[in-house]
């Protein structure tokens, strides 16, 4: 059995991101939402995700921007974020073990919860 190591560099980030989004694209529940929104722009999206996670986990400041606005109008609900998190956790746990892997899962969980909250907030505000 191979002993898993922690996330330590950009190559690890790329492995995590590529593996995760490969599963997302094929997922019957959330895959169609991602594939419709991203279309043929997967390479650009993946590059952005490499920079995002590199900034968060490795403190290499290669990402700038606001991650929420592109997600604001997505047709998603809490169960979509739960599935996203399930895939992210499974992927991370299958590839890595250590403090940064745990940090990645915590950051992903916090982001999913915050995005879900904000999307619900904006939907309810628009109904008024």
From TrEMBL:
It comes from the Bacteria. InterPro entries: Globin-like_sf, Globin/Proto, Hemoglobin_trunc. Heme binds at residue 71. Gene3D superfamilies: Globins. One of its GO terms (molecular function) is metal ion binding. SUPFAM superfamilies: Globin-like. Pfam families: Bac_globin. Keywords: Heme, Iron, Metal-binding, Transport. This is Group III truncated hemoglobin. The lineage of its organism: Bacteria, Pseudomonadati, Bacteroidota, Flavobacteriia, Flavobacteriales.
């Amino acid at each position: 059995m191979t002993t898993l190591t922690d996330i330590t560099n950009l190559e690890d980030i790329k492995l995590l991101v590529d593996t995760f989004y490969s599963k997302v694209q094929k997922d019957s529940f959330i895959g169609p939402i991602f594939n419709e929104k991203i279309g043929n722009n997967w390479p650009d999206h993946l590059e952005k995700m490499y920079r995002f996670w590199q900034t968060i986990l490795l403190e290499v400041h290669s990402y700038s921007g606001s991650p929420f606005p592109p997600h604001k109008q997505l047709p998603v609900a809490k169960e979509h974020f739960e599935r996203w998190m399930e895939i992210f956790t499974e992927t991370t746990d299958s590839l890595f073990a250590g403090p940064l892997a745990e940090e990645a899962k915590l950051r992903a969980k916090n982001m999913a919860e915050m995005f879900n909250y904000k999307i619900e907030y904006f939907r309810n505000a628009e109904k008024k």
